[in-house]
Amino acid sequence: MSTDALWRLDRFTRLFTTTYSGTPLEDAQNFICSCHEVLRTMGILETNGVDFATFRLAGSAKTWWRDFSLARPAGSPSLTWGQFSELFLGKFLPVTQRDALRRQFEHLQQGLMSATQYETQFIDHARHAIVILPTERERVRRFVDGLVQPIRVQMARSAGSEIIFQEATDGARRIELELSQGGGYGSDKRPRHSGRFSGTLSGGRDSYGRGHPPRPFQSALQTSHGSLVSRGSQPQYSDQQLFSSPSAPISAPPLRYYQQPRACYTCGDVSHIARYCP
């Protein structure tokens, strides 16, 4: 290995400190994806990628790679990164397991998770479904489809068709916060009543009591000026008449409301009653 290659290897091992030994508790997909990101950033994915990645193998994984290399015919061309990745995942992440993880991703929904928790789960599962999400647009579409209905509806109203994944996740968190604060983001919801009188009456209910019929006296006040409120057999003036200003004359009640003079039952004379009849 040349001096320049040794310098790149030293730099790679400083940036990528993870090792993989092939135990069931280790994540083979995460190892290969993380390694790929560092190698691509350094610009050595195809030139030194396979050699540097295998340098981070340990235990049974290191033994597997050594056996594979020794079994290859002499003079065989070096593996490309794509070939190595497929070979590595085929050994430590079988197709049946990858299919199961892919199905988990396809059925991933936000449910009771927060938008942030859903985003974390989405990113973690998406690496098992690279074929399903070949473009950024498909990635965004699948993320939005898994959101809960209120957030998904608001995203469809406010987000454009060409947003990137980071904009989609930021928008989902913002909408979730606004909905949790009762703002009804982008909705047509009317403001809730505070319990104070708004100045209007509804359903025939008045200040006398919610749901109770109007009191008789209040009903009588709905008559025109000059009308009487009947209580028993005695004619009474309404409040409007009794408390009107002097400039507003009070109309006299009709004569039929006055009592007739009492007459003597014996002789019929109105000047006295039967007790004093001569």
- Shape field: rod-shaped
Main sheet characteristics: 2 strands, antiparallel
CA(first)-CA(last) distance: 155 Å
Average pLDDT metric: 75
User: From the helix content, strand content and strand pairing, which structural class follows?
Assistant: mainly alpha
Query: Using only CA atoms, what is the Rg?
Result: 45 Å
State the order of secondary-structure elements, H for helix, E for strand: HHHHHHHHHHHEEH
Can you tag this structure with a few keywords?
278 residues, mainly alpha, two-stranded antiparallel sheet
What does this structure look like?
The protein is an all-alpha fold. 46% of the residues lie in helices and 3% in strands. Strands 1-2 form a two-stranded antiparallel ribbon. A hairpin with a 2-residue loop joins β1 and β2. α8 runs parallel beside α10 and α9 crosses α10. The longest helix has 16 residues. The radius of gyration is 45 Å and the shape is rod-shaped. The chain starts with a helix and ends in a 36-residue tail after the last helix.
Chain-wise SSE layout:
Elements: H1 3-15, H2 28-42, H3 49-55, H4 59-71, H5 81-92, H6 95-106, H7 115-126, H8 136-145, H9 149-158, H10 165-180, H11 216-220, E1 228-231, E2 234-237, H12 239-242
